[in-house]
Design a protein that fits this description.
The chain is mostly helical. Helices cover about 70% and strands about 0% of the residues. Helix 4 runs parallel beside helix 6.
Length: about 140
Amino acid sequence: MSYFDDKDAAEILGHGTLGFDASDIASLIAAAPTLLKTARAGANVGARVIADPHLQEVLCEGFRVINVLDNKPAGKACRRTGPVSQARMDRGIGLKGGLLPARAFIFHRENPWVLPVAIGGTVGLLFLAGYFIGKGRKK
C-alpha cells in the first residue's frame, strides 16, 4: 500500500496540478514540447536573475523590508554593489530598479517624522515665495 490512495494520486497528478490528465500517456507526450518550452523559458529567466549583478543587494534589502514590516529593526545597511559595466548589466534582468523604493520605504518607516517635515517645508517655501513676489510688486 502506498502513501497515497489512487484518488489522491489522481488528484495530485491530474488536471489540478499539471493542467492535463497525467493518466493518459498520449496527452503527456503531446504536451511534452509545450512543457519543455516553458521549462526552458523558466530556466532562462532564472539564469538571468542569478546573473544580475545587484541580486545580493536586492535580497539584503528585501530581508530588511521584511524586518521593518515585522516591526523589528531593519538591521545594518546592505553592502552596495560597486560600479557595474554595461555588459554585466545586460546579463541581468534589472533588479537595480527595486533598490530605491525599498530603501525609501525603510527610511520612511525608521524616520516617520520626515514626511510631515518635507510637506511642511514645501508649503513654507511656497508661502515664502508668494511673500517675496508680493513684496516686490508693492514697490
